[in-house]
Amino acid sequence: MMSVSSGCRDANKMGGDAGKYVRYTPEQVEALERVYNECPKPSSLRRQQLIRECPILSNIDPKQIKVWFQNRRCREKQRKESARLQTVNRKLTAMNKLLMEENDRLQKQVAHLVYENSYFRQQTQNAATLATTDTSCESVVTSGQQQTTSQRPPKDASPAGLVSIAEETLTEFLSKATGTAVEWIQMPGMKPGPDSIGIIAISHGCSGVAARACGL
């Protein structure tokens, strides 16, 4: 298929072979344009008829008329191609603008997401650090409470209280050892008080292991 530019070069070459370049008057161009609008590619007979019907074209060689129509078709193709390329260029320009705007929007969105990710990561690290600190503090407090509890003195540190605790402990031990109830009996002649000394009354025939071993 012959391109537009090559067709125009061929037409110019044919025009050169036909003779000297012809400068058309406005009236001649108008007459040729009317025929071109009706038939862009007239035949040889139609061109000869045109010369006969238009006296203003009588001094133009038929080959020159043929070249004029060839050049006119080339210019029309060039005009249409230029218009098409301009339309494509406008569409591409508009598309490029939209893509640039979308690219800017996506870049801003990515920057915002990166900022949020960094913020949430920092918050998570702070929460983890705070949780570790709270656990350590709780362990220290619990250990301190246990140590305080273990070092807490008896409720009653008086001599009478200590004697009472000793009696309760001994009673519990003897009751488990002898298998019978143990009663404290005040010694004769001793007044009740913190300095008094009591004796233990244990029944005979006890079933406890210690009682059997002692022959009670």
TrEMBL record:
Localization of this protein: Nucleus
SUPFAM superfamilies: Homeodomain-like (SSF46689)
DNA-binding region: 17-80
Keyword Cell inner membrane: no
Coiled-coil ranges (or none): 89-116
Any matching Pfam family: Homeodomain
GO cellular component term of the entry, any: nucleus
Ranges for domain Homeobox: 15-79
Descriptive protein name: Homeobox domain-containing protein
